[in-house]
Specification:
By secondary structure, the chain is mostly beta strands. It contains five helices and 25 strands.
Length: 439
Amino acid sequence: MSNKNVVWGLAARRWAQVSCSLLALNVATRGSAQQSADTLAASGDVPQVLQEVVVTAEKRESTVQATPISMTAISGADLQARGLSSVADVARETPGISFRSAGPGLTEFEMRGISATGGSVGTTGFYVDETPITPPSFGAIGKVVIDPNLCDLQSVEILRGPQGTLYGAGSMGGTVRLLTNPPKLNLLDATARVMGSYTENGGFNRGGDLMLNIPIVQDLLALRLVASSQYNDGWLDRVVENEFPYPSSEGCPASIFLGCTRGNVAAGPYAALYRRVNWNRIDTLRPSLLLRPADGLSIVLTSLYQRTTAGGYSQIDIPPGCSSSAPCGHYQPNDVAEPLYDLVKLVSAVIKYDLPFAQLTSATSYWSRDERQTGDGSEVAQNAVGYNFGIPYVPVPFTEADHSEQFSTELRLASTGDGRFQWGEGCSSAVSTFAFLRT
């Protein structure tokens, strides 16, 4: 008989944080940026000349050299040239950021040694354009963020160190920002890309991207449509043991968890062997609409739909690990599949108006995320309880469905120009809801 509990995260269910304050007041020159800031930009056909990356880390357009923040900015052209298709790929090549991941949509980021699992909110901010994406608060999957496809991005910005002044309490360690390319007026443009690769101990990976920029009304309205689909084959196996070995208490401290040393699962025999179960597929659709009704006034409406499916976690059981002759992957006493599903929907509206001395920005967004995972808890249950009473392994399937959503809005005024004195003021609020159902 299954026990169903619906738990609402009260702190996250009706959380609203409103902060109206002076966001940034600094005196800076173009030479005052920290020398540790890295600029990674595509160089085109002439490798001696680097293209400057325009960044908005301080809520205003600038360059890395003129921004006094320890940061890395990677242009969209460089992302494509280097084959970086996910935020985890970017993190691998960026100093000052670490992560742990069990696959797409199951990644936690950490910066400056601040753990992502501490507290009820994440410690690394994650933004898609002007939209803050808050990780789940109470899910068993941890403080994981969405893993959007990096196709047709303007740049990726990684800000190291506390960013609470501009990005709130969820950015104690740093902030990751994904900036998409907006639609372009009076330009009919299209790009397409087809990708293929092979995974060692796996199979054939394939995918494709498509971008269409369509001017609808001259000097007034334009549409940009980005679509992508990517399939990555698995490289880990799911092994069901015919007679799963019991754990050993040798060398264990005195406690009720006596079975703390795993048995020799590599010895077999195997009742079932499922090859390459950690495959994943990511389908993304991102339309955006630009309206420019007057000089200095722009309205950008953006939507994101992303669906991620996977056959299993990208996790390895140690022991036996992958160094032995046994299959590399996950070993189970019972045949319980562990698929994953992640659906993200986002809509946003960003309005910008250029004043003679500053830029006024209004950013409003709403997103929802539905995650579903299945796991097998039979080994944990037997080790904790059954070991003491001689109870054999019994199937303990575990299913969790997480739903989170957030509405946020921000109004800010930031100075423009190249003067030594720059300022910004803003007001923002966010309401988040999170719920999970465990069976």
